[in-house]
Design a protein that fits this description.
Length: about 400
């Protein structure tokens, strides 16, 4: 009898504990529901494509669902007529190196013509647009001014506006959804900076498209008819792990989150790890030997970096593969300390920003978006002084940005 009573009591306690755990699990799910990209929500846009000739601006990140099925394959199975595919930098399959020209081709898997927007032309031609009724833009961005997807977006918007075609944007989260850095001085406008935005603009592709329209950034202030399929259950401060690498040299989540800070080093003699299998997670130079114990050696890697800076030379510097990027992301700021530290440690100051040394070095002024940044680093200015120089333009941008945000 006593054993029965004990068993019944334990059974009730077990049910109570299980019930509490289930309640807690349901509460957690309610607080952190699963993010669904615009592409995942086919029910919202497939009806808009039925019976139409469709063009798609896509790459390897354009996937649907947890099985990561390419969106072009999913839409073809649903009976959508896809007439053309447009590929951005790195190509439709995402296997071309940074800056490499990409040619037109016929996709071997689908038989659909693939038109490069990073080769002979940067926007679809009238002939391209005449072949379609509607365009889809579905590419994962990483939220930086010098990442060229936003340039491709604007070029496609321009082509759609010129030819009276609607653009459907399947939105995706921004893994670097904070606002920081100097706003681009338009005197320094280039292929790595076309719009008056800071280094991290804090917007998804859908939000950025609304800003391009709203601020009149297309030629002659043309307006593109856009429809954004927003991300479901998403807020800007949520951490988002990219399911597919966005480009060959952003091959880990760590590299994606370090990219806004480390890409500035492309305007210096410091390697960011191109030519290794850990790009944008390490920093170094042969001239830092004896100063830092950590080392790596860039080599030629086809499809990633054929002729990297300091090729076949041992570089010494910083290993950031285990750096706390969650803390960095939560800070809402790019890291300036690494630039300040490595310039101070570098023995040949006159070479640090001298891009005449190598074709693999970029223009620091165009990367930073201002001529002041280089001068401030060379003068040993404090981080506080550097950040103060970004005002009032940065605060003005933040206020302007609020008009176009779709997510909190």
């Amino acid at each position: 009898m006593n054993r029965t009573i004990i068993f019944m009591r334990n059974r009730k306690l077990l049910f109570l504990v299980v019930g509490m755990l289930l309640l807690q699990a349901n509460f957690c799910c309610a607080q952190n529901p699963t993010i669904q990209t615009g592409a995942d929500q086919t029910e919202l846009y497939v009806p808009l494509l039925k019976g139409k000739n469709v063009g798609m601006v896509i790459n390897q990140t354009s996937v649907i669902g947890t099985r990561l099925v390419p969106s072009v394959d999913s839409l073809l199975k649903l009976g959508i007529r896809i007439k053309e595919i447009f590929g951005p930098e790195h190509g439709f399959r995402g296997n071309a190196s940074n800056g490499a020209k990409v040619t037109d081709e016929i996709d071997a898997e689908t038989g659909i013509p693939v038109i490069s927007l990073y080769g002979q032309k940067r926007k679809p031609s009238k002939k391209d647009m005449d072949a379609i009724d509607i365009m889809i833009f579905d590419i994962q961005d990483v939220g930086c001014r010098f990442y060229t997807n936003i340039n491709t977006l604007a070029d496609v918007m321009e082509a759609c506006a010129e030819n009276g075609k609607e653009l459907i944007i399947l939105d995706r989260p921004n893994p670097n959804a904070f606002v920081d850095g100097p706003v681009l001085d338009m005197k320094l406008k280039s292929g790595i900076g076309r719009f008056p935005v800071p280094i991290t603009h804090g917007m998804t592709i859908g939000e950025f498209a609304q800003m391009v329209n709203g601020e009149g950034w297309l030629p002659d202030k043309m307006q593109c008819k856009i429809k954004v399929i927003p991300v479901k259950n998403y807020m800007h401060d949520l951490d988002y792990v990219l399911p597919v690498n966005p480009s060959p040299n952003l091959n880990t989540q760590q590299s994606v989150l370090l990219y806004p800070s480390l890409c500035l080093f492309e305007g210096t003699t410091i390697s960011q790890g191109r030519g290794t299998y850990m790009p944008f997670t390490v920093l170094g130079s042969p001239d830092l030997k004896g100063i830092y114990p950590f080392s790596f050696t860039p080599v030629s890697i086809p499809g990633k970096s054929e002729t990297p800076l300091h090729q076949n030379e041992v570089c010494y510097g910083l290993d950031l593969r285990n750096y706390n990027t969650v803390k960095l992301h939560k800070s809402g700021q790019i890291n300036l300390k690494w630039m300040m530290e490595l310039y101070k440690a570098y023995p040949y100051k006159e070479k640090f920003f001298d891009m005449s040394q190598s074709k693999q070095m970029g223009n620091i002024d165009k990367l930073a978006g201002t001529t002041l940044f280089k001068e401030q680093i060379m003068a040993g200015k404090s981080e506080k002084e550097i950040r103060q120089s970004w005002e009032p333009e940065l605060s003005r941008y933040k206020a302007m940005r609020q008009k176009y945000v779709l997510y909190k």
